[in-house]
Amino acid sequence: MTIEAVAPTGNGQTVCVTGAGGFIASWLVKLLLEKGYTVKGTVRNPDDPKNAHLKAMEGAAERLILCKADLLDYDALREAIDGCQGVFHTASPVTDDPEQMVEPAVRGARYVIIAAAEAGTVRRVVFTSSIGAVTMDPNRGPDVVVDESCWSDLEYCKNTRNWYCYGKVVAEQAAWEVAREKGVELAVVNPVLVLGPLLQPQVNASIVHILKYLDGSVKRYTNAVQAYVDVRDVAEAHLRVYETAGAAGKRFICAERVLHREDVVRILAKLFPEYPVPNRCSDEVNPRKKPYNFSDQGLRDLGLQCKPVSQSLYDTVKSLQEKGHLPVMPPQYQKL
Ligand SMILES: NC(=O)c1ccc[n+]([C@@H]2O[C@H](COP(=O)([O-])OP(=O)(O)OC[C@H]3O[C@@H](n4cnc5c(N)ncnc54)[C@H](OP(=O)(O)O)[C@@H]3O)[C@@H](O)[C@H]2O)c1
Known about the structure:
Blueprint: E1 14-18, H1 23-34, E2 38-43, H2 52-55, H3 60-63, E3 64-68, H4 74-81, E4 86-89, H5 98-119, E5 124-128, E6 145-146, H6 154-159, H7 163-182, E7 186-191, E8 193-195, H8 205-211, E9 225-230, H9 231-243, E10 251-254, E11 257-260, H10 261-271, E12 293-294, H11 297-301, H12 309-322
Parallel strand pairs: 1-2, 1-4, 2-3, 4-5, 5-7, 6-12, 7-10, 8-9
Antiparallel strand pairs: 9-11
Residues 19, 21-25, 44, 70-71, 90-94, 104, 128, 130, 168, 191, 193-194, 204, 206 line the site of NADP nicotinamide-adenine-dinucleotide phosphate.
């Protein structure tokens, strides 16, 4: 069943995007401006050169307002959300340091929903959660299809010191709880590891996941699997989840496919043979980890079709070269 989109353009609508300068949020701001929305983007420092790319976007001069806000500053978030019809809450620490991760993620989620309720104009909040809030469950059988009903196990996240996933679970749970209490319409996007071209000048954590296989910093790949999706599809998913009436109250897994690390390095080595991509696994004893099955039916029902991972990998590397994070090798260094 395809759910009907009710608001195909943003003309006349103002929306807030938290953490606007981040990897995903930058693409979302770009898309919203293209669709005619006026965007109030929160950043921690509007004058930081790392946010200059936002000001240079088409439509930004007329319809992008940068607001200074930290996730721990309720008043600043309240001011940024004032007068908005929608909120995209993407800002979050991305770290495994428990102190830096958990409190800002949870408090930020609560504050954003409360501010949306207080503003009185917000029609829907779209919260960027993560697959990390979905799959970290050691008791899930190998044949279980991971879907939006799955939640990561908090004890397991704690015991494995995976504080990023722990923080994303408790932040998403806080968002659902406060939204229920305050009567705020909420929808959640749970992206898997996000790849693709960068708009922002600095390299974010999910891009480091690929950069490390190209710059020689990692000599062997791990015996592990990971699901991937393109950042442009993640931005589109957020927009569809916002604009589609039937998306309220639901979670949406945003994923293209699950690959073993061996598949990732093979694709990279084939596309870019000039880089020292590892060709041996660090674990030559245990059987090769198997990919899990997931359902992306929710976003398919909203009409989203994700780009193939090989294209995202290609575009990631090209973008890293263009932004000066990877040297472009002269032809004599390129293996045939
Ligand atoms: N990339 C992925 O693979 C992936 C996958 C699933 C979910 N997600 C989620 O998607 C969202 C965006 O991630 P991303 O990959 O785009 O990461 P990113 O580029 O690191 O962006 C994170 C943003 O959050 C902001 N932020 C962090 N702590 C903050 C605080 N205390 N107060 C205000 N702003 C704060 C950062 O601002 P500064 O620039 O000032 O630090 C930055 O703009 C996050 O919620 C993340 O958990 C990402």
